[in-house]
Amino acid sequence: MRLHTGKWLLLFLAVPAALANAALPVVRDALTDAATPAVSPWLRYLPSGVGLSQQSTGRLGKGQDPGIVFFRGSYYLVQAAGGTFLTVFRSSDLQTLMTDEQFHWELTKELVDNVEAPDIDIITDPTDGSQKLGIYISRVRPFPGFIKVVVTDDPAEGFEDKGYLKGVSGYDAHYLEHPNGNAYLFYSDFATLQIIQMSDPWTTQGSNVTISRATLPWEMEDGYPPINEAPATVISGETLNLIYSANNWASVYYLCGRLTADVNSDPMDPSSWTKDTSGPVFKSANGLLGPGSGTFFTNGLQRWWAYGCFTDPSRVERHIRAQTVSFNSNEEVVLGEPV
Ligand SMILES: *[C@@H]1O[C@H](CO)[C@@H](O)[C@H](O)[C@H]1NC(C)=O
């Protein structure tokens, strides 16, 4: 979520009952990449990767709640920012992603200064089967908000407003085209992570189901109301990994936990999901504080995790960083430490 002033951090601390009407610290989410050779639907996500550097870390710039995707040879980024435009950043080089091309979509009136945590995902347009970019914009007032879908084939050519998703009350949306052939939207309603099936990238189908809530001591370390937010997924082998963020984004306790599900299980069944209860999988380290609200993407050579974090003890502004990830023998994603 965007860095608001300390004023409403105090409000947040003092008046948890007012959560329903306040613009809350919201965070953002992520993308699915794919590279599972045995699962054919994922092959279409594999970009060429030609000419890309082999670097393993990136300092992208000021910002938070990144959503990043690699699509047709370019990286695309959206992030939380106020104002009257949604900005889509594009570059063929990760290091220059926030300083190269920028495209602006003029926000509809109700979204002005009211956008948090947008995500960008590769979607399949049901009308012609082509791949496009879907931008899932969180509008957080009234809290926990609504999700608007904006589609683009090439941001230089324009954007199409597909409207708000029906039946979704939340923020931090993340759209996933699953190897089982269905599509799903993950999002947060602040206290819990939700999933809802999608009949196409801008149409929900049926009702949402809760797949996680904050219950563990390290998910509630800051003494704030329980938070599970910013779902981001990455598949490796037969394992669907979901990284989420817990605690308050403005605190040093903001961190990430991990859920996993077998790709052959039904993601709409809460019992398909297992939370790693042993502790956070990504947290403050190396002077980088409150890392979280991240996104997964692949450039065809490596799989990456990008996230926001504070880079100084006073926690004035956040920066977006990216680093490569690995997987353990259970195909669980290993994020390591923020660097
Ligand atoms: C669907 O979402 C709403 C709002 O977040 C929540 O109250 C409800 O419990 C969810 N439904 C299920 C079945 O979890």
From TrEMBL:
The UniProt keywords, alphabetically, are:
Glycosidase, Hydrolase, Signal
Q: Where are the transmembrane segments?
A: none
Instruction: Fetch the SUPFAM superfamilies from UniProt.
Output: Arabinanase/levansucrase/invertase
Pfam families xref list: Glyco_hydro_43 (PF04616)
Write down the InterPro entries for this protein, in alphabetical order.
Glyco_hydro_43, Glyco_hydro_beta-prop_sf
Q: Which GO terms describe its molecular function?
A: hydrolase activity, hydrolyzing O-glycosyl compounds
Name assigned to this protein = Uncharacterized protein
Source taxonomy: Eukaryota, Viridiplantae, Chlorophyta, core chlorophytes, Trebouxiophyceae
